[in-house]
Amino acid sequence: FLCRVPPELRDVAVLMEPLTVAEKGLDQLWHIQQRLAWDCAVEPGKGRGHCHKAVVLGAGPIGILGAMTFKVAGFETFVYSRSKAPNPKSELVESFGVKYISSETTTPAQLAERVGNIDLVYEAVGVAKTSFDVMMHLGLNGVFVFTGIPAPEGHVELEGNQLMRNLVLKNQIVLGTVNADK
Predict the structure, then answer these.
(1) What does the pLDDT look like over 133-178, one tens digit per residue?
(2) What angle do CA 113, 115, 120 make, to 5 degrees?
(3) Using CA atoms, how far apart are residues 141 and 120, in angstroms rounded to an integer?
(4) Which of 13, 11, 121, 5 shows the shortest CA–CA distance to 58?
(5) CA distances from 60 to 15, 41, 136 (A)
(6) CB–CB of 55/61 below 8 Å?
(7) How far apart are alpha carbons 143 and 14 in whole angstroms?
(8) Which residues, at least 6 apart from 56, have a Cβ–Cβ distance to it below 8 Å?
(9) Alpha-carbon distance 55 to 57, whole Å?
(10) What letters, b where the CB count within 10 A reaches 16 and e where it falls short, cover 90-104?
(11) Contact (Cβ atoms closer than 8 angstroms) between residue 157 and residue 128
(12) pLDDT in tens, 16-75
């Protein structure tokens, strides 16, 4: 099950596996959203997702590569991560045109106000509380993609009734994904 990496990719090959997580998530998103008229009108020079907004939770390797993937696909993309800016991760994210927002200074409700309708949340933190807090603000026809794996111990309290109402009445989707195949 190994894939040979061309020698010219040697310096960046370590990023291939985490990039497959984002690519698979995006691929699944397009397949799932065929259930709706969710596609953006074709505009030359703009990616397929140019009329949508994506929030990436976390600025680790999976989050940063996810932000790059969604930016390239045309989404207006935001990274929502713990540390206050400026920091090396916020600077990296902003260097490729993605807005960085700190969860230390911005609540999930404030995040939703700032972003507007959140069409996609790409979770890359592995923290259930943060993830479900943001899920409460997923927009109409939105998709929430889990990639993180929280520790098995512990529990989190949820606003289960409201979460379930949102999923049904806002026509939302929740999915989990892990690295892609060849």
Answers:
(1) 999 999 999 999 999 999 889 899 999 999 999 999 999 999 999 8
(2) 120
(3) 9
(4) 121
(5) 12, 32, 23
(6) no
(7) 28
(8) 63, 66, 67, 70, 77, 78, 79, 80, 98, 121, 122, 124
(9) 6
(10) bebbeeeebbbbbbe
(11) no
(12) 888 999 999 999 999 999 999 898 999 999 999 999 999 999 999 999 999 999 999 999
* Tokens standing for residue 124: 């890359």
Token look-up 């993937």 returns 69
Distances (CA, A) of 115 to 57, 139, 160: 13, 10, 24
List the one residue out of 68, 20, 21 whose CA is nearest residue 47.
68
Q: What is the pTM of this model?
A: 0.94
Residue 109 sits at φ, ψ, to 5 deg, of -65, -40
Distance of CA 163 to the CA centre of its chain: 19
- Please give the DSSP secondary-structure letter assigned to residue 75: -
